Every structure is written in structure tokens, then in C-alpha cells.
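Example record

One chain of 271 residues, shown exactly as stored in the release files.
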Amino acid sequence: MKDSDRPHIVIASTLAGIGKQNLADYLCHAYCHEGSCEFTYNNNVYTLSAGECLIVRRGDLVSEVLESVDFRVDVIYVTPEFIEISTPQSNYGMKGSLALFNNPIMHLTEAQQKVCALDFDYIKRRWALADTHHFHRDAMINAVQCMIIDFFDFHAEQYGNDKISSQYADLMERFLVLLERGDFRRNREIAYYADKLFVTSKYLSEVCKKVSGFPANYWINRFTVLDISRQLRDKKRSFTELTDLYGFSSPSYFSRYVQKYLGASPTDFRE
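Predicted C-alpha cells for this chain:
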């Protein structure tokens, strides 16, 4: 299916589809009304419970989804392109998305729960008018933007509303683009990314620290470790193959890296 043919928004009542091929690059937003859902994200186990919302930027980081019998949830998947045009002109989104990368669940107050439920219901009702509303796309941009703004507010209420300059947000965004396209597989030195971004290594790390709370090498290793852990689950791939994939000089160096960051040897991690 061409990108132009696929729906910008997919509405569901289960998290079973998260990370599936047809939704792999959609951003997932979920609000739990009742019950609970356990899942693995970034190699950590989380539980989404009633009164909490879930925001996942990359569905391929989610696995082992287990929903309780009484689990009731609203799920809205949105393409990255539609998120981009719907996101308000605020640099706070960068801080929020980085925090959610480490913990995708936000616990909401009773007042926030009501707002969140209304946002999801509004999007669903607007989406149902696809065949009759003459300005349906504009209406959906407005509805999704309202949801995003409220997510910003929920997050700022919990973590503070520190101002982030446009310059810092832009640099962080471009840094993440390099990581998300997989440059870390062959390049794990800060200098490589600094050169690509036309800044010094020191400046890049300082900006990362100010925007996300972590220096540049944290994010490089974070993306690398998560990717390696996914690859190790595929038992068809040999350790020699993975050594070459990640540019290590020998399987022993690859094994040391895995031991250091995953706490187990490649062999033990697979078992």
C-alpha cells in the first residue's frame, strides 16, 4: 500500500495490533477505561491500568501484549506525517516525547481522565464523518491537535514546563532522526553525529542534556541496546552476523558490549 493510500488515523478497541506490520510506524495513543494490559516496551515490563494513557512513538518497541479479560481501551493510531501537521508550534513536544520514550505511561488525575476521554471520543466522532464532512481533513487536524495539546499539559503538570529553545529542539530532532534511521549500527561515537549536525561533540552532548536530561552517548547506547536486544531474539541470526551488522571488530567485542549493557552474554540473553 502506498503511503498516500493508507489512512492517516486508525481507531481500535484493543492494543493487540500495536507494532504489527501495517501499523509499525504509526504513533499509538491509548486511554484505559477499565482493566489492565501488561506489555514489554524497551525491554521493560509495564502495566497500563484504568485512568492511565499510553503514548508510543514506535510500535516495534512493544511486544508480549497481555490484556485482562475486563480490559476496555480506546486506541488511536496516527501516521507520523499527520502527527507532524497536527502538532502545535511548541517545542515542549520534544521534551515530552523523550520522556515517554523511557516511560510510555502517564497516570492521570480524575480531571485529566475526563479531558482525555473527551479527546478520544471527539476524534472518534469526527472520524465517523469522513464521508459527509466537506472539511474532514481540517477537522481531524484540529481534533488531533487538541489531543496533543492536552497531552503536553498532562506531562507538564507532572514534570514541569521548562522552556526549550527552537534551536535546541531542532538539533535534538535532527540527532534523533540519525539514530532512528539506524546510524548507531555502524557509528557509536558522538563525534560522528556532531560532524553530521555541524556542531561540536561537547555542544551536542550539552544540548541533549538540557533537552532530555541525558547526554548524547546515553541516547546512542539506548538505541543500540534496544536494537541489539530485538536482533538477539531472532535465533536465526548468528552472533557473527550480528557482530558484522553492528560493526564490531570481533564476536568477543560484541559479546563484551552486550554483557555491559544488557547484563548477560549473547548466549544467556537468548535463553
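Notes: The longest strand covers residues 27-34.
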